Amino acid sequence: MAAAMAEPAGDGSRAGFAPCDTRPMRHYDVFNGDADGICSLHQLRLADPLDSELVTGLKRDIALLDSVPARSGDVVTVLDVSLDRNRAGLLALLDRGVHVRYFDHHHAGDIPRHPRLEAAIDVSRDACTSALVDRHLGGRFRAWAVVGAFGDDLAPLALELAKPLDLAAGRLARLRELGVSINYNAYGASAADVLVHPRELYAIVRRHEDPFEMIAREPVVERLGAQRRADLERALAIAPAKASHAAAAYLLPEASWSRRVIGIFANRLAAQGPERAHAVLAPVDGTAYVVSVRAPRSARTSAAEFCRRYAAGGGRAAAAGIDRLDAARVDAFLEEFERAWSA
To answer: Is 1 or 96 the better-scoring residue by pLDDT?
Structure first.
């Protein structure tokens, strides 16, 4: 685990804050719109309710800190977005006198040492942000951590987290379904692709301290599940564009459902063939593709390491992606993908 923990630097944390400025301190919550990001923030705000300005987006909307207008004395909480992809925005916030709390499990690179930065970052293969927040809170809202871990396709971690809850198999399966459906909803090239914008879905989640209450009372849960199952059935009917003993790649058609299903389809392929690498490509527009990559269970090369070879690539060891791959580079990508896992 890589971590940097620090307390605010007393008066220095408000450097540049004019004595006559009576503007109240503002809180900003910056989070990935997938299940892990939503469930991480929900746990924190159940423990510490407060009014905050929300900054989020779809799964691939990662560089979020550049858009945060925080000023000296404000507090920004960041959840489930790569520090490495937000380094410039983070440093700018710290330079402006903002206090930043950072929870994440994606590739981070060097973590800045700064008196106004509290960072809990664990990039190990079997970590997720929901579990980091759960640890921070001493397991107070454990069921939501289980939902987040299931959503991030970390079933072994979810099952381990769930042990103290002593849930019957049926109830555990319902938490898995909820996590997978929330995660599925985050994938898309634009808000037009998804069923509910992540900001709106978080607003629904935050009504419920108990995830089973949400499952019972919110129609959106069944709606997401039904659409997810339909999209996945379409994807499973598609043959790989390129396949070997070590790797398989799939090209999905130009359609909103392709961009929605790309993540859960990649997860299903990885579950069915854990010793094989998988890549799923979906057209973003007429000129580019979005890519999801899953590494083999025993791989020496991580998915994040492979995807960082591309300008818009990143992620974590088991699962990563490329936000934009030029269509002209698809054939070369397929060749490089197969070579990377055949070596």
So the answer is: 96
Mean pLDDT of the chain: 91
Q: Which domain holds residue 71?
A: 2-223
**Residues 254, 211 share a domain:** no
Residue 115 is given by DSSP the state T
pLDDT of residue 82: 93
80 backbone φψ class: left, alpha, beta (φ>0; ψ -120 to 50): left
Residue with tokens 């400025």: 21
Among 192-196, 311-315, 338-342, the range of highest mean pLDDT: 192-196
Beta strands in the chain (DSSP E): 2-4, 27-31, 53-55, 75-79, 99-104, 117-121, 242-243, 247-251, 277-283, 288-294, 313-315, 319-326
User: What pLDDT shows up at residue 305?
Assistant: 92
Do both 49 and 166 map to the same domain? yes
| DSSP 8-state code for residue 96 | T
| CATH code, domain with 218 | 3.90.1640
Query: Which pair of structure tokens corresponds to residue 340?
Result: 């990377």
Q: How many domains would you assign to the chain?
A: 2
Same-domain pairing of 294 and 195: no
The proportion of the chain whose per-residue pLDDT surpasses 70, expressed as a percent, equals: 93
